[in-house]
Amino acid sequence: MRSRILFQFISRRSISLNTRPKTAIKLGQPTYETRPHIIPKPGNLTPGISALEYFQRRLRLASKLPDNSLAIIIGNTTQFSSGSVFYDFQQDNDFYYLTGWLEPDSIMVLEKKGNKGNDDDVVLHMLVPPKNEQRELWEGAKTGLDGAVEFFNADSVEDVGKASTYIRSLVQSSKMIYYDNKYAEKPKYKSAFSSFFNFGGGGSDKWTGLNDIILGSGKPVSPLSSVVASLRKIKSPAEIEVMHAAGQISSRAINKAIGQVGSTDPIATEKTLAKYLEYQFVRGGCDKQAYIPVVASGSNALTIHYTRNDDLLYRDELVFVDAGGKLGGYCADISRTWPNSTKGFSEPQRDLYEAVLNTNKKCIELCNESLGYSLHDIHEYSVTSLKTELQNITGFQNLSKIDVSRYLYPHYIGHHLGLDLHDVPSISRFEKLVEGNVITIEPGLYIPEDDRWPKHFQGIGIRVEDDVVVGEANDEIINLTSGCVKEIVDIESLINGGVTTPGIDDELVVLDI
Ligand code: GLY
Ligand code: MN
Ligand code: MN
């Protein structure tokens, strides 16, 4: 287990004006040159990931493609909630994985020429929004075509407004295209997309929009995402460091939240706890929260995807949280459950909590390549383990595995984690886990409000979720969220004034990645 310190702490008082970077460069996303507190290392394009690593990812992708082929990804556009109000921009994660590029309305084409051994064998084409003074006055700086060459190592660039002509010409001279038709069977999305990218102007439907140019080219088209998934499912050492930082920051944030229970100013609502966590993720060094969290008081936790988060936090009920921060695009995903009471866990809460915690710990031990388990094998094990644990609790004896998975633990043990929360779902649950896979381990118990179950257990929902790097052997398993307390004694100590991280409130966190 590596134990590198992933943070540097600097006094907030040292953020004086003379430390502002003096650069004339203006780009559409943070870089070492413009935002060194986010990307503190020269050579890194996004937090913790170097320009060289992005280049190597493209080479590895190209090595899986045939000669004279193209891999085309149309990046995401800004999505609007209503009128002119837009959502936080989310880049297409395959695009991001291969380039680090974070601006909307951009396209990448990786061209595999097949001139083996020649420098120009693999060509990165980027079609991006150009610099434009008028637009930039409203929307902020763009990286532009020159920036795509200089910072993102594009070999060939073009104004995305000329995409139709550019892509048509590339497609015509290729033999095979890898492309995901994300717009199939989504007419609403398709039309927005088509009109946005309708640069060709005027033609018939078949030739307006890039989707149609690619699919109508007559060239064989294969899905790209499954090829990229085969790369994304094994995390590099650099990715693991970023995910470790995201996991540690998120762990500290949740510890702080647990510590609020016994404070003089306890959190009173699910909503404020959700926002408290989001603030602590960012305060600790993450960019944002990774997903809409579940913050559920008591029996609200029986709804697996409870995201209303609009109830009060009732004293003596359990607080159930599933939340995590996102850093450099990588997600943390943590679930913890703690009593909203300085008295600690009640007896029924404690009995069930121990059953879940023991199962969580045993399943983490199985994230060992040499044992040859798949995610599904670990899931099966988790059902058996919960059944065995429940046999020790009055009212839950003589349950079958089906009873457990149908009524008390109706979800799966976990999923791959990475740029996406449920990372690259095309990976089979039946594949043997290998070193460098990152998965969640998240057993839970949710006791229905139904008199089949003992009254004092009804309405209790508990999950303990950690993010785990599969190791080659037992001592190489890394629990990325090990910093988040989960032992009963540690949770109760935090609730009763235990200190999470001394001095944290005096620090500005700069990641040492
Ligand atoms: N936060 C969603 C999940 O745990 O899968
Ligand atoms: Mn989760
Ligand atoms: Mn999860």
List keywords for this structure.
513 residues; alpha+beta; 3-stranded antiparallel beta sheet; 14 helices; 30% helix; globular; binds glycine; binds manganese (II) ion
Describe this structure in words.
The protein is of the alpha+beta class and 513 residues long. Helix content is 30%, strand content 17%. The chain has 14 helices and 23 strands. The strands form eight sheets. It has a six-stranded mixed β-sheet, with helices on both faces. β5 and β6 (85-86) form a beta hairpin. α9 packs across α10 and α11 (347-365) runs antiparallel to α12 (375-390). Residues 186-208 have low confidence and may be disordered. The structure holds glycine and manganese (II) ion (2 copies). Residues 291, 322, 333, 415, 421, 442, 465 line the site of glycine.
Quick rundown:
By secondary structure, the protein is an alpha+beta fold. The protein has helices spanning 51-63, 93-99, 133-139, 144-150, 163-172, 187-196, 210-215, 225-232, 237-259, 270-283, 347-365, 375-390, 401-408, 488-495, and strands at residues 7-11, 44-46, 49-50, 69-74, 80-82, 85-86, 107-112, 122-128, 156-159, 176-179, 221-222, 288-289, 294-297, 318-323, 325-327, 330-331, 334-339, 438-441, 444-446, 461-463, 466-469, 478-479, 507-511.
